[in-house]
Amino acid sequence: MLKNIDPLLTAPVLRILAEMGHGDELAIVDANFPAVTLGKRVAMVSATAPATLDAVLTLLPLDDFVEAPATVMEVVDAPGETPETVREFQICINRAENRPINMARIERFAFYERAKSAFAVIATGETRLYGCILVRKGVIRPR
Question: What is the domain count for the chain?
Answer without folding.
Answer: 1
